Amino acid sequence: MAFESSPAQQERNPASLSPQEFKATAEAILTNVEWVIEGKSQTIRLALAVMLAEGHLLLEDVPGVGKTQLAKSLARSVDCSVRRIQFTPDLLPSDVTGVSIFDPEKRDFVFKPGAIFGNLILGDEINRASPKTQAALLECMEERQVTIDGSTYKLRSPFMVIATQNPVEMEGTYPLPEAQRDRFTARLAIGYPDVNAELAMLDHRGEFNPLESLKPVCSGETIVRMIATARAVHVAPELKRYAVDLVAATRSNAQLRLGASPRATLQLLRCAQVLAAMDGRDFALPDDVQQLAVPILAHRLIPTTETSMGGNDSVSIVTDILRHVPVVSQPGRF
Amino acid sequence: MSGQRHATVVAAASLCLTLTPLAGIFQGLGWTIPVLLTVTVVATAGSLMRSAGRGQGLQTLAMVAALLILMTALFNGGTAIAFLIPTPDTLGHWLSVMGVGINDIIVMAPPVEASGGILFLTMMGVGMVAILHDMFIVGLRTPALSGLTLLTMYLVPVSVAPEATAWFWFVLPAVAYLWVLADDNLRRVSGFGHRFTGHGQLVGPRFPSPLAATARTTGAVFVAVTLILLAVIPTNTSGLVDQVARGYGDGPGQGDGEFGDVDPWAQLEGSLKRSDPVDLLRVETDDPSPRYLRMHVADVLTNDGFGPAEYDDLDPLGALTFSGGTVFEATVENLRMGTAVLPVYGRPTEVDLDDGWGVDPATGVIVGDGDGLADVDGYSFSYTDPDWDANVLDEAGEMDPGDPRYDRNTAHPDVPELTARVEDILAGADTTHEKTLAIMDFLSPANDFVYSLDTADAGHDEAILNFLDTRQGYCQQYAAALAWMLREADVPARVIIGLSQGRRSDDIWTLTSDDYHAWVEVYFEGPGWVAFDPTPASGVPNSVSLPWAAEPSDEPTDGAPTSAPADPGATAEPDDAPTLADELQSEDEQAAEGGAIGDEPVGSSPAWLALLVLLAVPLLPALWRSGLRRSRLGAKRLSAQSAWDETVDLSADYGVALNDSLTPRQAAAALATAAPGAKEPADALASAVEFDRYSSRDADTTRLPAAVADLRVSLERSVHPKQRIRARLWPASLAATLTERRGRANRLAALRSRMRGPRRSNARRDQAVTGRP
Q1: How confident is the model at residue B565 (pLDDT cuts 50, 70, 90)?
Q2: What is the per-residue pLDDT across B236-276, written as a single tens digit (0 to 9) for each?
Q3: Residue ranges making up the domain that contains B713
Q4: Window B:653-672, CB contacts with A under 8 Å
Q5: Which of B252, B261, B434, B610 stands the most exposed, by the fewest C-beta atoms within 10 Å?
Q6: What domains lie within chain A, and their CATH numbers?
Q7: Contact residues on chain A for B667, CB-CB shorter than 8 A
């Protein structure tokens, strides 16, 4: 095969890091990225957490706030391959996954891997691609493999898709169907920088583009070890119960037409494990879950029409649920 | 039914419920019909006038008129026009009926027949109360005031018939009152329009408001608490009227003659149990050692015990005879005595009193008419009080069964258990004297009988058997037991109630209410009636030894004031009067007795216990809270979780609201914001509980009690002193603990109901909820 593939044993049994090592490495990556994106440490933190939880990230924000910069700098900080796909209506699924073409020299079909064969895939303006192409991407994201002409090609590890979506200028777009948004672990909005951050940005960018001077601070192999380490973080039964209560609350909420899926519960806890590890802990806390509730749950929920017209969005509903669900649930009460 | 009609019915029905204790006054149920008729007529008149839109004044007039017409119809005596319109003559007739009724009330004891004057008074009273009741509840819409009318109605039977104080008679009036209050509030709330649940859902008009559950619980709790208190507080089982009739009780303003003529046993018991004895008589006599002063002779024995016969067919005082022996003179100054009988020593031969007094031939009791001793400031008499030789008594014969007095003085109810016991005790005793001494030996302290005033009831058959079993009692039980057992053995015996010797100073003997005493007279053919006192000398403050009776032996520590002379003929010398030490000791004993078993005994009485409990109630939350804290932080139970529970409760006590959707860290941050010094201990506690709850290892708990203490100190500093006191005495966390389950359930229910959407068809299970607003 002509593409790199991680050995299976490396994924299954990598030597795990100590909490301190994990924390230090994570801090190094964060510092690195923050050098490019000023004043957005919490967003960067969550983005890194999604990456270490083997999730995919949907950045939904207006143009020019640094979605692509964030994805790029995150990718640069880790020594791994970065592919960028600019989604357009005429993009074909084979552009994403790859295609077998006939090699006259070898007199055989040779697989030409598509853009998806990288560690970090940046899918820009995913809503501009045709649904068929979107579907191809989403399928790879979930299965982490590509099957073409009967052959299955495993994707790399770490593997993460960072898709961006522009909430304005909706004409001629194919917005992601709700069901497909569920494939993304988290949706983040970057938001405009505050005044000081914007001033600092002007100072930096005046001289050079910080993105270009960015050096990797850890290897792809370290990331794989970090992923394994985070998976081993202890999740107490009480915390699992809390996560389930939170998700269940979205399903029974009168303001919502669709609640969060069990996949959301899984990813909520996996990301919480990563946040705990990034904090140097070997056990997750409800605080971790609470930080993640809005990014992980909000984009999966569909508010009722009345709620939307009333000016409430899913973010405020999740915030409200967080305020009401007890951290320690009474068994049999909910 | 319109609102006012409904309220009228409620008012009338609640009054009827309150009338149920009247069943304790009247015989049968005949009284219910006229009384219910009265209530109905009054309510109907008021309701009709209201329907016609008339004001309160006219309503009241109409009710009064209706009542008068009803009374005229039932009690006109032929004086009314067309049986319904009262005339001035009717009024006169009513006055006479009322006179009869009042007289009946005074004369008759409940239960009485509901007719004539009493029925008139009852109907009139109920009618007037019904008018007020209707006015309060329906006319003026002040249902709380109806408590007064209900109370008035309830007090009548309660004051007359003691049975009405039983708890079940209280329940119906209490429920009636709660009903009135609840119904009025329901009307008021219904007047608001639609009713909603706490979560904003509409409640159907025929369903109870969910908010009413609290009111129902509160009402039930109050009724229950009152009933428990009623059960615990000792009630005076004789009704108010009886107490008034008894009419003794001290108080310097009340003057002389307070000891009215009532049941001598009640007087005896009441006097002995007084916590503050009063002086009754002052006697000067030339008898160096006077014995007991006789007053009543209780020689009629029924299942209820010994009681005096009616003293009728009195002989004039001149009929007193002299039967030999030394004659002594006694002069009595009456300090407070008000009885109808005259206390005299031994066998009086001559009494210096007016013609109103006579002597009862069967018993020798000297009885006065009218106010008895209450009118007498003093009197003097001469008497003999022979000493009997034990041998003489041994040889004396028994009363001839043909003697007319025999039946009266040996009659006794058939109590087989007692008969069997007496046979046991008297085995081997032949003569009357031997039998008497055998029973007195049986009743002696050597046989484990103990003198105690703290005895529930006395006299009747079961009480005597109880006394023989428990072996605790006072002179009434001792005397009754001796006399009854002698009668079982066919020995004529009777119980005497009177006064013991009293305290001496020079030749003056002062007798107090503590000197009330009961003893026994046994008949010997020849000597006649001879006194025996089975009560241990320790129990009788100024007892007298009767040389012919082997005095019940006593513990050496007891201060028997008068020593028993060896020679039957000798009398106690003045030197034998109680020594100072004896007196002090006996006073101590009395004081101790008074403290322990006086009118309102401390410590043992449920009333005091109830009072103590009531006083302690405000402190209970504080005690409970500190106990809870100690148990949570105690070495045995200490864990990060228990320390955290304590932290959460502390913050509740000091008014820092910690929602249970906060994580420990957020809670610690909230505490740090509320109290500046609390950050460090709160963080320590939060991180311990985090560790305990969410990590796979156990948290280190050694520093947690100190952290809790630090937290408490800093919280205390951060609040106003008033809140500090409240946090200590009335910790808010306790209330939260009590309502925790409920509160949590409510919160979740609220959350669920908000989340419950119309899209879910199976979500609406509660049928009482008819829709969303």
Answers
A1: very low
A2: 444 444 444 443 333 333 333 333 345 777 777 777 777 67
A3: 637-733
A4: 659-666
A5: B252
A6: 8-227 (3.40.50.300), 233-324 (1.10.8.80)
A7: none
